[in-house]
Design goal:
alpha+beta, single chain, 15 strands, 2 domains, 5-stranded antiparallel sheet
Length: 286
């Protein structure tokens, strides 16, 4: 799963924001981005809509943060206690194709590669310490290089039931790294919500997907121990996205009806690109 992140830089700090860590109002210098404004901004960013965002500070002690784009138009102007604050630059980061990644030969497969739809086998316990551990380590390298937050084994051409994710999308936040082997959903919430998603196997597109608000999961760790865990919110969404990959289900299969026409052109482009570079006659799996 890919993460569209708004990075706000200044000489004194770097702050990564997306709509999932904006559950509360966020202070940036003297300016407060309210939950509603941050959600609108990040939602538009995740849908690939053009945005113009600015952040400036005046010598008179006023600060302004604003954004303009389809469905987004707002500005916040407040008096600052400090008259001279560093100017900030706001940059939208999206997933990238990193090409060759140091430490691994793995590459992210793009739609409609047939391995994205192929069945995925479970790992044997005897494989966890060797094959599974090596695969997880290399998948994390690819995920971070691609600026993603999650990756499933079939996305790198390995049809096994293993996923990795880090909801922070930052290799420095390694404490949030999660590796799940042979995961299984054992319970879900009745409630669901719709939010935009994107995928490393579908570069250049996104769409709204309905997911359960929480899921209970049973899986194995790389040390062979079975455990149960409950994921909620953003983490639940990332997990469900990657879990679908293990079942050969792609997020385009779950797009909300109104978003389906919007992605057809990009899907056609990806299919044409694949057909032009088809590897060893592997027919596309649409």
């Amino acid at each position: 799963m890919s993460s569209h992140i708004i990075r706000i830089e200044s000489r004194s700090a770097v702050l990564h924001l997306n709509k999932h860590n904006a559950e509360e109002a966020i202070s940036i210098g003297p300016v407060v981005w309210t939950q509603a404004k941050m959600h609108r901004l990040a939602f538009s960013a995740a849908r690939g809509l053009p945005l113009k965002v600015h952040c400036s500070f005046s010598s008179a002690g006023y600060s302004t943060i604003g954004a303009r784009g389809p469905g987004v138009h707002f500005a916040v102007r407040r008096r600052s206690r400090r008259a001279h604050l560093p100017r900030m630059e706001i940059v939208l980061e999206e997933e990238v194709d990193p090409g060759a990644v140091a430490g691994t030969d793995l590459r992210v497969l793009r739609y409609p590669h047939p391995l994205l739809r192929a069945p995925n086998a479970e790992f044997e316990k005897s494989e966890l310490a060797g094959e599974a551990r090596k695969l997880a380590k290399e998948m994390l390298l690819v995920m971070y290089a691609s600026k993603g937050v999650g990756l499933a084994a079939p996305q790198v051409g390995v049809n096994k039931r293993l996923m990795v994710f880090n909801v922070e999308g930052d290799s420095k936040a390694w404490v949030h790294e999660t590796v799940l082997v042979n995961p299984r959903i054992i319970a879900t919430s009745k409630a669901s919500d719709v939010e935009p998603e994107a995928c490393l196997s579908f570069p250049g597109m996104s769409g709204a997907v309905r997911r359960r608000e929480w899921v209970k999961v049973e899986a194995y760790k790389l040390n062979g121990k079975k455990f149960k865990v409950k994921y909620e919110g953003w983490k639940a969404r990332v997990f469900q996205h990657e879990y679908d990959h293990l079942d050969g289900v792609l997020y385009i299969d779950r797009l909300e009806e109104e978003d389906q026409p919007e992605v057809q052109q990009r899907l056609s482009e990806l299919t044409e690109e694949y057909m032009a570079n088809m590897y060893k006659g592997q027919e596309p799996a649409l």
